[in-house]
Design goal:
The protein is an alpha+beta fold. The two termini are 50 Å apart. It is globular and about 85 Å long. It contains 17 helices and 24 strands.
Length: 699
């Protein structure tokens, strides 16, 4: 064919083009008091991904305003208005407000003029008026398939402003899968930035057009999976990504089941798309009964996404991964970004191993979701409706699967009832707030190793499964040979991803920092990971000794400290002066003692005391980074900490209490200034570290 498209992709483009164009918008300056709507210069393109939500590039909404704050900025959105019976289609213009940009640091640091903006270069715009509009279908896959695709955006050829679609062949990925390389011959015009990139084989939007490559033809797009890196929201709130994706799935579900509109929906077109074998001999007549049994139909997939969207979102990424692993029969791809919605879990179930294929894996997953614990009450009957759909869908498959799903459902119900009985006295629904202890469940683990005789360090960020799977850690990212000054920036993105995987609606996950005792003064609690707020204010942060077998008395000391009452004793100072305890002094103290250290951890006597405390089995130690002014007395620190230990009663409350103190100091509470720089060693025996400690320089 003249444009290089195969017969199958040409037909797919013909089917998908009207749907994509209907959801693609023009982004421009907002209308002023004297302007005519939609007549200003084009900044770029965008597209509706959910009712009232437009996705575009950050550099598009930043057009013409180098000093303008992006978040909160108003922009103009010109969109397609479908004509009614006997009426022609047209356009409308509405105001939008930028709700979020990625990466967040774009608010602080913009690129130079005509320079590429940092990835992922995305912006989410909320429409400021109720309008009727179309939405695209987003992929649920974290990694795009490299196949024939089409990109859309605003062009002004021959003086005519319109939304144009062009085909391309994807060339590969870049930036660890965050970006997609488009074909070398593609002619991407400036106004097309922010437009959708569509996988023609599967009929789903997989990316956002970002830029034309400066070295020649072609360009790059950002994968839509980067939306999962949106801020996850504060404790007790549903994050922006989950809210938008819920709206996306319910929109398409409503379109699918409605009989009020006879126009083609995305689900209809998915059912009409040529199969991947259409260009082979025999063409579209080749689909077999086996392929129909191993995959859900487009209508079943849309319905399943809609039913999942009617349930409360999952509490954490790890909850999704656990159910995916149980349904898939093997650990899913742990590559970034993490799944945050029930729908994202479906994206990890494509091409599973073993018999049954995707349909069986997705039905197993849906069964497990229907009997999962939801901290918020589902809509009445929503979980039962999901199970009824699973059972009805399985009826068209084979008998062994129907029986397996029924048994799986009964086991899940029994296990959920057992958990609820075990939690008697706690509300069945609503926000669950642990009794002032460290957050339960998975935590984020930051490990740092020093190179011998060099001032450079290797690091690794992982998700530590916690008491549910002791010692089990899922790697997030690692690096080597960084200086301490460069370490915060090196681990910023991996830590943010780890928090997205572990945070729940009820609590922010614990950050556990594994360093040698000499690095206990590392100001990790003051690092900024996301939101412009120090991480120690956002969540509990504790220190850990590096791996190794704990001393024999460690378990008994830990148990006594948890129950209290706590006894805090100075271990490196006496009346503000350096003091080193006699050998064996620490080992002879009562078990509920908490050693308190006020001097620099890398210097004696404090470093030596930390080593002795480890050998004596102390799992809880309080220390601090001394203030810059050596003339400042340590007495306020010791006095304040003594009161905190007395009020806490037992050790279980200390991580949360220290987080609260950091928050008070950050909020300029003079009564909490003494707590600045305070750190807590927290060697929880129920959260053992992974045993595989890499060799130095060998990450």
């Amino acid at each position: 064919m003249p444009d290089g498209r195969t017969g199958g992709s040409a037909r797919a483009f013909e089917l998908l083009e009207p749907l994509v164009k209907a959801a693609t918008v023009r982004v421009h300056a907002p209308v002023d008091g004297y302007g005519t709507p939609g007549t200003g210069p084009t900044w770029g393109s965008g597209f509706f991904i959910a009712p009232g939500w437009v996705l575009t590039c950050a550099h598009v909404v930043g057009e013409g305003g180098a000093a303008v704050r992006l978040v909160g900025r108003e922009v103009g959105i010109t969109f397609s208005v479908a004509g009614g019976p006997g009426e022609a289609a047209g356009t409308g213009t509405v105001a939008g407000r930028v709700e979020c940009v990625l990466p967040e640091r774009l608010e602080e640091r913009r690129p130079a003029p005509r320079a590429l903006w940092d990835l992922p270069d995305l912006a989410l715009v909320r429409v400021l008026a109720p309008i009727s509009h179309a939405c695209v279908w987003l992929t649920d896959r974290a990694r795009p398939r490299l196949d024939e695709a089409a990109y859309f955006g605003v062009t002004e050829d021959l003086g005519v402003r319109e939304i144009t679609g062009r085909t391309t062949r994807l060339r590969g990925t870049a930036a660890n899968g965050a970006a997609i390389r488009l074909g070398d011959d593609d002619d991407i015009e400036p106004g097309m930035s922010g437009g959708p990139l569509v996988d023609l084989a599967r009929g789903e939007v997989i990316g956002v057009v970002k830029a034309r490559r400066q070295t020649g033809g072609g360009g790059i797009a950002v994968t839509v999976a980067q939306l999962r890196t949106l801020p996850t929201g504060t404790t007790g709130q549903v994050g922006l990504y989950r809210r938008v994706m819920q709206g996306h799935d319910l929109y398409h579900y409503d379109q699918h089941v409605s009989d009020l509109d006879s126009r083609r929906t995305w689900t209809d077109v998915h059912d009409e798309l040529p199969s991947e074998d259409d260009d082979a001999p025999g063409g579209p007549e080749r689909p077999t009964r086996l392929s129909r049994l191993t995959r859900l139909t487009p209508g079943e997939r849309t319905t399943l996404c809609g039913l999942l969207a009617e349930l409360p979102p999952p509490g954490s990424s790890e909850a999704v991964r656990a159910l995916v692993e149980a349904a898939r029969g093997e650990e899913p791809d742990t590559g970034l970004p993490a799944p945050l919605t029930w729908r994202d879990g479906l994206g990890l179930l494509h091409d599973p191993p073993g018999a049954g294929g995707e349909a069986a894996a997705m039905l197993r997953y849906a069964t497990d979701v229907s009997v999962a614990d939801h901290r918020e009450p589902p809509a009445p009957g929503a979980d039962e409706e999901l199970w009824d759909w699973v059972r009805a869908t399985a009826a068209r498959l084979w008998r062994p699967l129907r029986r397996e799903l029924g048994e799986r459902y009964e086991r899940g119900l029994a296990e959920r009832e057992r958990r609820r009985r075990a939690g008697t006295g706690r509300p069945a629904y609503g926000p669950f707030r642990p009794a002032a202890g460290a957050p339960p469940g998975p935590s984020v683990l930051l490990e740092t190793w020093a190179h011998v005789w060099e001032d450079v360090y290797d690091w690794r960020v992982s998700v530590l499964a916690g008491p549910a799977r002791p010692g089990d850690a899922t790697p997030v990212a690692s690096g080597n040979r960084v200086t301490l000054a460069a370490l915060p920036e090196a681990v910023r993105a991996p830590l943010a991803e780890g928090f997205r995987r572990c945070d729940t609606h009820e609590s922010a996950a614990l950050l556990e920092v594994v360093v040698a005792e000499e690095l206990f003064g590392l100001p990790v609690d003051e690092w900024t990971v996301s939101g412009g707020v120090p991480v120690g204010v956002q969540r509990p942060v504790v220190l850990r000794y590096p791996g190794g077998d704990p001393p024999a008395q460690a378990a008994e000391r830990w148990a006594r400290v948890q129950t209290g009452p706590l006894l805090g004793l100075r271990a490196d100072c006496s009346r503000g002066r350096k003091w080193r305890p006699a050998p064996g002094w620490l080992a002879g103290l009562v078990d509920q003692t908490v050693p308190v250290l006020c001097r620099a951890a890398a210097e004696d006597p404090t470093c030596g005391v930390l080593h002795e405390a480890r050998d004596a089995g102390y799992g809880v130690v309080a220390c601090r980074r001394p203030p810059a002014d050596p003339r400042m007395s340590c007495e306020p620190f010791h006095r304040g900490l003594r009161e905190e230990l007395a009020d806490a009663g037992g050790g279980a409350a200390l991580p949360a209490r220290l987080q609260a103190l950091r928050g008070r100091a950050y909020g300029a509470d003079p009564d909490a200034y003494w707590a600045v720089g305070t750190a807590l060693l927290w060697q929880d025996p129920q959260r053992p570290l992974p045993e595989d400690e890499p060799l130095q320089g060998d990450l």
